Amino acid sequence: MRLIIDTDTAGDDAFSILLALKAPHVTLEAITICNGNVPFLQQAENALYTLEVAGAGGQVPVYLGCPRPMLRAPVDATEFFGADGMSDAGFPQARQRPEAEHAVDRIIDLVMSNPGEIEILAQAPLTNIATAYVKEPRIAQALKHLWVMGGTDNSLGNTTPASEFNFYVDPEAAKIVVNAGFRLTLSTWTLTMASGVLPEAALARIAALDTPLSRFFMAVSQAPFKRTAMRYGRPLSTHPDSLTCACLIEPALMLETADCLVDVETQGELTRAYSSVCTPLTPEEAEIDKLWYAAPANARVIRRADTDRFAEMLIAALKD
Ligand code: BDR
Ligand code: CA
């Protein structure tokens, strides 16, 4: 599998990169950086350090993409991940530096020169992917598959009650992407809370590994542990991005999916970036109910994933 990861590298984004690096059948062709979790260039440093700590320094090029959302002011999540996105662990600067080419151009070049071969894991706000599509709409058909971590499945968000962070930061980009005609799988915050919270026993096993990568995992997780403890009464290890990566590495992890019609609210005040997810009307219903949602499905939505197999994959990736 030939993969691009589009990321606002902080916290779990880094563990997702580790999973891709450790999967024998995945070739990580590029990491592209999008605005999101923490200051833009810091996210590139986090991706570069993740490569280095995994022994892959200099092996995967990192490209800088769009430092701002399409229309809106930037929004970050430093209060959740720490000012550096890595729980202020104070990691040294990696030797590898970002490439000169813009991430959007690299995405277009890679996809268009390898039609039907490249998959993208979009685990950040969708500014880069939407911009690539606007610049070269043919990528929607040339891309083999787009895996998006974003939105909610008609359930509570993590940024506002109505919305999840990646969609909230750039709702216009999310709306463009879900309506662009990509072969698309959506991994929502609802799925994260249902299937992407690491069991305590698995967390204890990771801590006990005491390898460079398990120490990296524990160091990066400290700020999110503090914030989740405030909200949920105990520290939670939440894995929106790495669970999505695990599903693309091993599709059997997806225990339940549904083909849905997904769209994104860009006008609402309280509902900014709310993702509407519904199963399409039957043809008979569509004849009668000529409503906006009388349209075919545009995404496969993951409803349930195998938490235990995900945990085993993560533990295996942190073994050295
Ligand atoms: C998503 O938002 C970001 O903060 C995380 O990196 C993840 O991609 C979860 O809502
Ligand atoms: Ca992310």
Widest sheet, order of strands: 3-2-1-4-5-6-9-7-8
Number of helices: 14
* Number of DSSP strand runs: 9
Portion of residues in helices?
A: 40-55%
Could you list the spans in which at least 5 consecutive residues all have pLDDT below 50?
Answer: none
CATH fold topology: Inosine-uridine Nucleoside N-ribohydrolase, Chain A
CATH homologous superfamily identity: Ribonucleoside hydrolase-like
Q: What does the radius of gyration come to?
A: 18 Å
SSE run: EHEHEHHEHHEHHEHHHHEEHEH
Fold and architecture overview:
The chain has 320 residues and is α/β, with parallel strands linked by helices. The chain has one domain: Ribonucleoside hydrolase-like (Inosine-uridine Nucleoside N-ribohydrolase, Chain A, Alpha-Beta Complex). Helix content is 41%, strand content 17%. The chain has 14 helices and nine strands. It has helices spanning 12-22, 40-53, 78-81, 103-113, 127-135, 139-142, 165-169, 171-178, 189-195, 200-209, 212-232, 240-249, 283-288, 307-317, and strands spanning 2-7, 27-33, 62-64, 118-123, 145-149, 184-187, 254-264, 275-278, 299-305. A nine-stranded mixed sheet has the order 3-2-1-4-5-6-9-7-8, sandwiched between helices. Strand 2 (27-33), helix 2 and strand 3 form a beta-alpha-beta unit. It is globular. The model has no long low-confidence stretch (mean pLDDT 96). The structure holds beta-D-ribofuranose and calcium ion. Beta-D-ribofuranose (BDR) is lined by residues 11-13, 37, 77, 123, 149, 158, 164-166, 189, 240-241. Calcium ion binds next to loops.
